[in-house]
Amino acid sequence: MTTGEIPAAELGDGDVDLFDAHVTGVLEPLDAPLRSLRFTRCRFDAPPVLSESFVRRLEFDDCVLPGLDARRLRCRGDLLLSGTSVHGPVELGDATVGGELSLRDSRIAAVRARRLAVGGDLVLAGAVLDGADGVAFDGRGSRVGGGVLGEDDVRIGVTATGAVLLADARVGGAVTLRQARLADLVADRARLTGDVDLTEARLRSLSLVGAAVGGSLVLGAVQVDEEPLSLDRARVAGDVHLAFALVHTGVRLVDARIGGDLRASHAELRGVSGARAHVGGDVDLVRTRSDDGLRLSGMDVGGRVDLSGASLHDSGGLALDLRDTRIGDGLRLADMAAEGTVVLSGAAVRGRVDLRGAHLAARAVALDACRLVTGELGLAVEDAPQGRVDLRYARCALLNDNRFLWGAGGGVELAGFDYLRLEPRLEDGPAVRRRLAQLRRASRRFTPDAYDRLAAVLRSDGQEVDAATVLVEKQRLRYAERARAVGWAGPAVTAWSLLMRSLTGYGYRMWRGIALLLLLALSAAMVWHW
Question: Do 421 and 460 meet the contact criterion of CB atoms below 8 Å apart?
Fold first, then answer.
């Protein structure tokens, strides 16, 4: 039907196919039989009232509406608003759409669609949702059998100046909102069967607290400006991609479970809070920058954790917190720059912990690795840590270090530190003496364990003489400690120590005593004979 101006009351009871028309009055086909309604380039004086109506198909193409009331609508097929301008809200609360719901290229003040049920896709490609009352799309508790699509074959992206609310929603397909420009996206407790793709999207806030994602969560190059990216208690079956993301207010992953990898290489984050998170695969934070540290205590990672080249700043607290973590395949901190404490206390790493080339700049405690358990511990740092290095009760099979470690500004705590092999090996006496000098400079208090462990490593390499040198030094320092403790009797203790060291090497060089006795016996015999 082609008309100019037509009253809504004259549209009859059958199918309507109207274009280039000015519809006056209120379109309200409440009691009409099941039919299709199609409007092309039409202008309405009043919002159509289709609440509780039954239609086969409803389409507005390139139309202008002051609003649309379709609450509790029953639409057997598609409901399409394509290229349409709606100056007021589109009311779809409790509506049922058997086919596709499309807002493609439309500009709408707001969509209110609580508990909406859509059998097909929800298409938002090219849509602009203005966000009346601060909410652009309210789909809380909605059900979408297909996907939520922000793109099609010719256009990509959706714009919403108000919040998009999908809390408690159920989506049977993918959520694809690449290059979207959204104020807030809230999908707390949502069940999203497919992938969620927000690549290159820009948002004020993003919240998926308690949500379940059946595929991967793709947030590559996403930008979040004002509120933390919240994934607390989220369940993601696949990977979480945050590579090259820019999150000004931090990422929250507390108690989250990720079945695949967590990838955030080259990202710029305000900080990450991921206490007790579980990651089935790898955690890739290569060259990530964080201005508020990474707090990942209690994290359980099936693969490796890689922070190579990361730049972590939190001069007033923790640059990296991995206390009590469980890592299945190595922790790489090579070339990392940390302006705050790096905490590895209580962590268990099946493979290698590698701090080769790391810069540790905290003034109080630079590295806290107390009770760390790992296969290999690489501490060949780039330069001397500014603060203390705490290795108390840590255990590893292989220790690899360099001279810079032993120059730590706050010293090195070694009580109970246990290792089986040392790299580079101490090949000769001069190397052993240099190591002893490093231990003396680094120890703020006498730690017998450090000397016993070094001697045991040397013995395992067949260096018995060098092991004895270490144990003699241990006893010398023990007597020196006692001399300081007894006060006025200190000189006597020092004299006894000198005598024991000279005669028997504190029992580790008994040949000296035996040789002296033989010499005395020989001298006495010669005198007697004379």
Answer: yes
Number of H helices, E strands in the chain: 5, 58
Instruction: Using DSSP, state whether 52 is helix, strand or coil.
Output: coil
229-257 as b/e: b if 16+ CB within 10 A? bbbbbbbbbbbbbbbbbbbebbbbbbbbb
Spatial distance between the Cα atoms of 67 and 54, rounded to a whole number of angstroms: 19
Asked if 72 and 53 count as a contact pair (C-beta separation under 8 A), the reply is no
Express each pLDDT in 376-392 by its tens digit.
999 999 999 999 999 99
Distance in Å from the first CA to the final CA of the chain: 146
Q: What is the greatest pairwise CA distance in the chain?
A: 149
Name the average pLDDT for the chain: 88
Report the alpha-carbon distance of residue 511 to residue 505 in Å, rounded. Answer: 9
- Give tens-digit pLDDT for 394-404: 999 999 999 99
Contacts of 307 (CB under 8 A, 6+ apart): 285, 286, 288, 294, 320, 331, 332, 333, 336
Give φ, ψ of 436 to 5 degrees: -65, -40
Map residue 390 onto helix, strand or coil: strand
What six digits make up the tokens of 276? 């007790």
CA distance 309 to 323: 20
Tell me how far apart the alpha carbons of residues 217 and 192 are, in angstroms, rounded to a whole number: 10
Measured distance CA(386)–CA(263) in Å, rounded: 30
Strands 74-75 and 283-284: unpaired
Residues whose CB falls within 8 Å of the CB of residue 287, separated by 6 or more in sequence, listed in order: 265, 266, 308, 309, 310, 311
Half-sphere exposure of 175 (CA within 13 A, CB side): 26
Q: Tokens 């922790």 appear where?
A: 331
pTM for this prediction:
0.87
**Cis amide leading into 424 (omega within 30):** yes
Residues 6+ apart with CB under 8 A from 221: 199, 200, 243, 244, 245, 246
Q: How many CB atoms lie within 10 A of CB 156?
A: 16
> What are the Cα distances from residue 340, in Å, to 259, 289, 317, 361?
30, 13, 6, 6
Cβ contacts of 511 within 8 Å, gap of 6 or more: none
The single-letter DSSP state of residue 374 is E
Q: What is the C-alpha separation between 501 and 509, in angstroms, rounded? A: 9
Name the token pair of 251.
């990422």
Give mean pLDDT, residues 474-497.
61
Query: 162, 185 in Cβ contact below 8 A?
Result: no
According to the 3-state scheme, what is the secondary structure of 175-222?
EECCCCEEEEEECCCCEECCCEECCCCEEEEEECCCCEECCCEECCCC
Return the higher-pLDDT residue of 360 and 317: 360
In this structure, what token pair is assigned to residue 215? 């595929």
Residue 25's pLDDT band, with cuts at 50, 70 and 90, is confident
Q: Beta-carbon neighbour count of residue 438 at 10 Å?
A: 16
d(CA 476, CA 252): 53
Tell the residue number behind the tokens 């004895």, with chain if given. Answer: 468
